[in-house]
Design a protein that fits this description.
Blueprint: E1 3-10, E2 20-29, E3 32-44, H1 48-73, H2 78-103, E4 107-109, E5 111-117, E6 120-126, E7 130-134, E8 138-140, H3 147-153, H4 159-164, E9 184-189, E10 195-199, H5 201-204, H6 209-216, H7 224-240, E11 247-254
Antiparallel strand pairs: 1-11, 2-3, 3-4, 3-5, 5-6, 6-9, 7-8, 7-10, 10-11
Helix pairs in contact: 1-2
Length: 255
């Protein structure tokens, strides 16, 4: 299976630094095209958030370059994959925590990642960066690890209330700022024509799922230039609606 890849990040209209980071890479292994992508949304004073998200992305890139090919050649096992991701997340969490303590600061990052391999996607999530699947409609694959999502699950607030809740940005987990991390994992088949969207929360706050689907899932979207243009248009719309956060989105279309 072949893929089209597109990714953009924008500092936005308020912040001086971009604390989001995005990684997207495609390799060929045993005549199989494989894609790995991740979005991290850093947080912390001054440049701390940027350090946190970049540290996570570097660790993920090193894993994909050095460790994953050995895993794939020796025989792919879903549980083994999740075990390696958990170890990587725990190690980065410890590294960022120690870094913060040594400097008297608090820093951290969200993380959503997806691996496409032999007709399936494998995803992992910590925090509130998201993965969506666009097919006949748009479906949120990951579930936010946030206070508001927990209250929504428990039936204490409605969906409409969650959109404007004063604690909607409060995370239950964050790599670097949470003592014990529990990632969520997801896996399913991928079909030709499917589009996977990874994004930070700044991308989705002020636009609807229907607007995203209408822009990205048109039948003419068969080139990287098309996707680059559509992401740019959506980011421009987000900025016009006065979103104050950094804005990041990555697209993977299966051909």
């Amino acid at each position: 299976m072949d893929y089209i890849l597109s990714a953009q990040t924008d500092v936005g209209i308020v912040k001086e630094t971009n604390q989001d980071s995005i990684f997207m890479q495609e390799i060929e292994l045993n005549n199989e095209r494989i894609v790995f992508s991740a979005v991290c949304d850093g947080m912390g004073g001054l440049e701390s958030g940027e350090v946190a998200s970049a540290t996570m992305i570097t660790a993920l890139k090193d894993w994909f370059d050095q460790t994953f090919p050995v895993l794939a050649v020796n025989g792919f096992d879903e549980n083994q994959l999740y075990g390696q991701w958990k170890t990587l997340i725990v190690n980065v969490n410890s590294k960022l925590s120690q870094y913060g303590k040594s400097r008297g600061i608090r820093l951290g990052t969200t993380f959503v990642g997806v691996l496409l391999y032999k007709g399936r996607y494998y995803a992992v999530n910590v925090g509130d960066s998201r993965l969506y699947l666009l097919r006949e409609n748009i479906r949120q694959v990951t579930k936010d690890q946030t206070y508001v999502q927990r209250e929504l699950d428990l039936g204490r607030i409605t969906y409409e209330e969650s959109l404007t809740h004063e604690s909607r940005s409060v995370l239950l987990q964050c790599i670097g700022a949470t003592e014990v991390i529990y990632p969520d994992y997801y896996a399913d088949d991928i079909r030709p024509g499917d589009v996977l969207l990874l994004c930070s929360d700044g991308f989705r706050h002020v636009i609807s799922d229907d607007e995203v689907y209408g822009q990205l899932n048109g039948g003419a979207n068969h080139s990287k230039a098309d996707f680059d243009g559509h992401i740019h248009s959506l980011i421009t719309l987000v900025k016009q609606r006065r979103e104050e956060d950094n804005i990041t989105a990555g697209l993977i279309k299966a051909l």
